[in-house]
């Protein structure tokens, strides 16, 4: 067993757990971390990056099980808020599923690179600054207050997250805030919306790339990444909800811009960290 490879997998899991629900692009950070650590072959690493996101989503299901169950049963019992949330999540997931199945592999081939990540980070950071400087009036304080129309619009905005560096959570949170959803509700809806999208993408990628992995060790590496991403994401979710209740996202905007510029600097100068 390659212990160094397992250590790198654990580090990747921590990066995923910390970045998945922050508006800073988890995929972008994972790609960069993979390159910096020379983690696995590119083919295996690309699948690993998608697969371990399911660990972070498992943390959402664990943390919000009661509310998610309420949404699921509400679609059957007709309880208003649960029904609206349940159908809203389904409708919001449709655009990215359709676009992802149609163009996901093309996007991965063309845009899974440092330049695309950097541009996505910078543009996303500027948008966050704009929305925080010009906040719309809040009309939906809790996630159950979102209308079906809100959910559909957020689902359409989520399609942008197929571009590495854009950030799924960033697109959905800022998009929801633009529609008049509170920062806390936008953050939680982004958590929930990731469940069908990320689980579906992860399982599909594993199925399509099953023959990439050879032997028990490869699957142990994936298991380590999943477990570590679950634990670190669970801690991050609790911290982020407490954070957004009192603060804005400006720190993440500046982080995105700084990171994007730094990536461009290294890309165009050929400098290396080591």
From TrEMBL:
Catalytic reactions of this protein: di-trans,octa-cis-undecaprenyl diphosphate + H2O = di-trans,octa-cis-undecaprenyl phosphate + phosphate + H(+)
Pfam families per record: BacA
This protein's UniProt keywords: Antibiotic resistance, Cell inner membrane, Cell membrane, Cell shape, Cell wall biogenesis/degradation, Hydrolase, Membrane, Peptidoglycan synthesis, Transmembrane, Transmembrane helix
A GO MF term: undecaprenyl-diphosphatase activity
GO biological process, alphabetically ordered: cell wall organization; peptidoglycan biosynthetic process; regulation of cell shape; response to antibiotic
Gene Ontology CC terms: plasma membrane
Top-level EC class: hydrolase
The UniProt record lists the keyword Ribonucleoprotein: no
Family: Belongs to the UppP family.
Function in brief: Catalyzes the dephosphorylation of undecaprenyl diphosphate (UPP). Confers resistance to bacitracin.
Name this protein carries in UniProt: Undecaprenyl-diphosphatase
Source organism: Acinetobacter gandensis
Gene giving rise to this polypeptide: uppP
